[in-house]
Specification:
single chain; alpha/beta; seven-stranded mixed β-sheet; two-stranded antiparallel ribbon; 11 strands
């Protein structure tokens, strides 16, 4: 709890995945991928409770072993086309305790830690933000991004020459998917979490989303696993 605000962390972990089968419980250096996120949530100074939303028995067993509550997700909310907000609303509809803020922590972001979570929570509550998400500085600056039409002609995203110095522009950020924070009373089925209003900047070195095998290779290398 922070400044009297009761805070719930939700970890959405479905069983299906295309790039890496059962990726949420792929073992890396002695623990399942999702456990890195559960450990970060447990180490937070401010998170009161943690819920794992899953449709999968093996994921449920890992969560129970880690002493984390499970809310079973219906199959229709665990498809490739399912929206995260639908899962969030399902969790809210099954709560038996009142919380003021919901912190969504995707289990495919294992480098996000409790310091990041707590900094983001303080930012939200101290400034009375209705919503926030984590961002990282873009690797490819919009000055150098192009669109190409069917004739092969290029057009720029920004209406200026690429010779303009980058430092003359405001900073650009990308939504990294590691942390989403929302006031629960504001959430509806039409909420777009990626359009949360305020940003918490995470350093780029902590921005790793495990989606394909190459991402696992990078993660293992960062942990010193050859």
């Amino acid at each position: 709890m922070y400044r009297g605000r009761k805070i719930l962390a939700v970890v959405p972990a479905r069983g299906g995945s295309k790039g890496i089968p059962h990726k949420n419980i792929v073992e890396v250096k002695g623990k399942e991928l999702m456990v890195y996120t559960l450990d970060a949530a447990k180490s937070s100074e401010y998170i009161d409770d943690i819920v794992v939303s899953t449709d999968d028995l093996l994921i449920e067993k890992v969560a129970v072993r880690e002493n984390v509550r499970v809310i079973k997700r219906p199959a229709e909310l665990a498809q490739d086309t399912s929206k995260t907000i639908d899962t969030v609303m399902h969790v809210i509809g099954n709560l038996d305790v009142q919380y003021e803020y919901l912190v969504l922590l995707q289990p495919t972001q294992p480098l996000r830690n409790s310091t990041h979570i707590d900094e983001a929570i303080r930012l939200v509550i101290d400034n009375n933000y209705p919503s926030l998400l984590s961002v990282s500085p873009v690797k490819d600056h919009p000055l150098l991004i192009r669109q190409m039409d069917t004739s092969g002609k290029l057009s720029s995203m920004l209406s200026c020459q690429s010779t303009v110095r980058r430092q003359d522009f405001p900073n650009y950020y990308v939504v990294n998917g590691a942390i989403y924070i929302n006031r629960i009373c504001d959430l509806t089925a039409d909420t777009s979490l990626n359009d949360n209003l305020y940003g918490y900047e995470m350093p780029s070195e902590f921005d790793l989303d495990i989606d394909e095998e190459k991402d696992l290779v990078i993660f293992k290398a960062m942990l010193g696993i050859v």
